[in-house]
Design a protein that fits this description.
single chain, 130 residues, alpha/beta, five-stranded mixed beta sheet, two-stranded antiparallel ribbon, 3 helices
């Protein structure tokens, strides 16, 4: 569900509006990135929640720019996550699965799959609200 807080222009009161997730596919990012101006909601996910997210009926699109990250995601999510270095702009209402390393690698270092597992990672759900 997508929750949007709106302001009533007549009396200034706020109210929440819940709507079903968009019909857009989930986009998978290998870092937290805001692809356009707007408002976003970002919450942490468990591994099981991340797996459920990429199994939505709308499917998912990969915007994972490193093969080693794509390999780790494929292994832990149980779905094929291809490397895709294309530029992607998240749409209003669209949900993204964000794969975040727990530590930043040194300048110029590209981590292999084993190094990514050693560093550790978390998942987040990034929803573009407007």
């Amino acid at each position: 569900m997508l929750t949007v807080t709106a302001l009533n222009p007549e009396d200034g009161t706020q109210h929440e509006r819940r709507s079903a997730m968009s019909n857009y596919p989930v986009v998978v990012f290998n870092t937290g990135i805001l692809t356009d101006f707007g408002s976003y909601d970002f919450v942490e996910l468990t591994l099981d929640e991340a797996r459920d997210l990429v199994r939505q009926p709308e499917g998912f699109v990969s915007a994972v720019g490193h093969q080693s990250s794509a390999d780790v995601l494929t292994e832990i999510l149980g779905v094929e996550v291809p490397e895709n270095r294309a530029f992607y702009t998240q749409k209003t209402g669209q949900v993204a699965l964000v794969f975040r390393l727990k530590k930043r690698p040194p300048e110029g270092v590209v981590l292999d799959a084993e190094s990514i597992k050693e560093v550790g990672f978390t998942f987040g759900k990034l929803t573009k609200l407007s």
